[in-house]
């Protein structure tokens, strides 16, 4: 986040200029995204209950907030846990109006340089996508009219005149025709950027087993993503499988996702984030802290696609004192402060939160039974391809299967 956040900052000051990439920087490896909206730590009251969005935005240890979640798309509806209590129903729709969020999104963007995304899906999403690509395109157009710039059209506007910085996809069950949906959003965002200058992002949160079953149709070279944050938790390929002191990881598979970025992704400059739980109870497995987490972050940073850390979620990381600051420090971003004239703006972006409970709790055990025999490669992990120096023998009964000159995996 460095220069772009400064641009975003001044864009916010000079109201005539659009804020561009308020926080996320595609040239930085110290971005930190923290999900807000699910209150996954689970406190109903008190300081550890999820607070309104603006409560968190002064914290310079992170720069991206995906709002979780838009839980239905065809007939759009939102769920922000206890924050929904501060919203009121919009008649004629299943959406609610959230004046506090309208205010806080603007404050977080213009005062604190945060990138605010709307995350679509979540583990409770059950619509299964769309029956046709035409239905997907029309739904995307509708979602854009609701959450994109306010054109004065007669549509519900949960965030009023505030405009998010893009969309995040977090699907955890099979969804159909999602590339058409994502590409229509991308197209509408690009058109809008051409007239207003405001930049928009598309991101996704696949789970670490490669390829991600739910999001793969979008990740298979069909949709241009700016970043993906891989959920390295609740699975055999998560942080808990990281082996210190070796560049060839058997199960922890950041290398596989780096390879995806370079050889499969439609956008070869896509950033891959290390998605982590923000607290012990934030995920079924995969929570790491201290020197272990520092070592995993250092290892992940050796890959050129590395863009930073994603944490599930805000409530969990705020209940885990010191964790967010330690992530920021692990990323190697000392709290930088840029002084420009009389204006002081912190440009630090770190990583702090995390807890992943709601996102992936349904997929926790996917592959935990897979053997971790040293020297052999587990199901869905890379076992060959040009430049590959890791293991080439799959754990029984899997077979190393050629997918491209760049990539073979155990299936
Ligand atoms: C709900 O509104 C109250 C009163 O303004 C505020 O203190 C609280 O933080 C809000 N809660 C959430 C979760 O947004």
From TrEMBL:
Q: Which GO terms describe its molecular function?
A: cellulose binding; chitin binding; endochitinase activity
**All copies of domain GH18, residue ranges:** 30-334
Top enzyme class:
hydrolase
Q: Name one GO biological process term.
A: chitin catabolic process
InterPro entries for this protein: CBD, CBD_sf, Cts1-like, GH, Glyco_hydro18_cat, Glyco_hydro_18_chit_AS, Glycosyl_Hydrlase18_Chitinase
Question: Where would I find the CBM1 domain in this sequence?
Answer: 375-411
| CDD domains registered for this protein in UniProt | GH18_hevamine_XipI_class_III (cd02877)
Keywords, ordered alphabetically: Carbohydrate metabolism, Chitin degradation, Chitin-binding, Glycosidase, Hydrolase, Polysaccharide degradation, Signal
Please provide, in alphabetical order, the Gene Ontology terms of the cellular component aspect for this entry.
extracellular region
Catalytic activity reads:
Random endo-hydrolysis of N-acetyl-beta-D-glucosaminide (1->4)-beta-linkages in chitin and chitodextrins
- One family from Pfam that matches here is CBM_1
- Per the UniProt entry, the signal peptide is 1-22
Similarity comment text for this entry? Belongs to the glycosyl hydrolase 18 family. Chitinase class III subfamily.
Record-given protein name: chitinase
Q: What's the source species for this entry?
A: Mollisia scopiformis
């Amino acid at each position: 986040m460095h220069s772009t956040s400064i641009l975003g900052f001044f864009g916010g000051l000079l109201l005539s200029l659009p804020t561009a990439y308020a926080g996320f920087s595609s040239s930085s490896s110290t971005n930190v995204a923290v999900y807000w909206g699910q209150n996954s730590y689970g406190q109903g009251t008190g300081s550890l209950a999820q607070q309104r969005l603006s409560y968190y935005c002064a914290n310079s240890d992170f720069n991206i907030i995906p709002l979780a979640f838009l839980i239905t798309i065809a007939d759009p509806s939102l769920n922000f846990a206890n924050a929904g209590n501060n919203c009121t129903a919009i008649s004629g729709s299943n959406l609610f109006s959230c004046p506090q969020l309208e205010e806080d999104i603007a404050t977080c963007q213009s005062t604190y340089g945060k990138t605010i995304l709307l995350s679509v899906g979540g583990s409770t999403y059950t619509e299964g996508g769309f029956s046709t690509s035409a239905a997907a395109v029309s739904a995307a157009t509708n979602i854009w009219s609701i959450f994109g710039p306010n054109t004065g059209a007669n549509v519900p506007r949960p965030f009023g005149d505030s405009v998010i910085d893009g969309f995040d996809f977090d699907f955890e069950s099979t969804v159909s025709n999602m590339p058409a949906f994502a590409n229509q959003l991308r197209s509408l965002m690009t058109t809008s950027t051409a007239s207003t200058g405001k930049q928009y992002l598309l991101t996704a949160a696949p789970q670490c087993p490669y390829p991600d079953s739910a999001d793969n149709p979008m990740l298979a070279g069909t949709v241009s993503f700016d970043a993906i944050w891989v959920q390295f938790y609740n699975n055999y390929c998560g942080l808990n499988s990281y082996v210190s002191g070796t560049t060839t990881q058997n199960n922890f598979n950041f290398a596989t996702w780096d390879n995806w970025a370079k050889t499969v992704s439609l956008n070869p400059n896509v950033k891959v984030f290390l998605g982590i739980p923000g607290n012990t109870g934030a995920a079924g497995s995969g929570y790491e802290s201290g020197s272990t987490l520092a070592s995993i972050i250092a290892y992940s940073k050796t890959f050129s696609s590395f863009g930073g850390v994603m944490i599930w979620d805000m409530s969990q990381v705020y209940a885990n004192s010191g964790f967010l600051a330690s992530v920021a420090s692990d990323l190697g971003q000392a709290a930088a402060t840029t002084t420009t004239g009389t204006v002081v703006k912190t440009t630090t972006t770190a990583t702090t939160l995390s807890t992943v409970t709601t996102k992936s709790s349904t997929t926790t055990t996917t592959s935990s039974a897979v053997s971790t025999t040293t020297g052999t490669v587990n199901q869905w992990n890379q076992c060959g391809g040009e430049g590959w120096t890791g293991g080439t023998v799959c754990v029984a009964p899997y077979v190393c299967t050629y997918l491209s000159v760049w990539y073979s995996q155990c299936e």
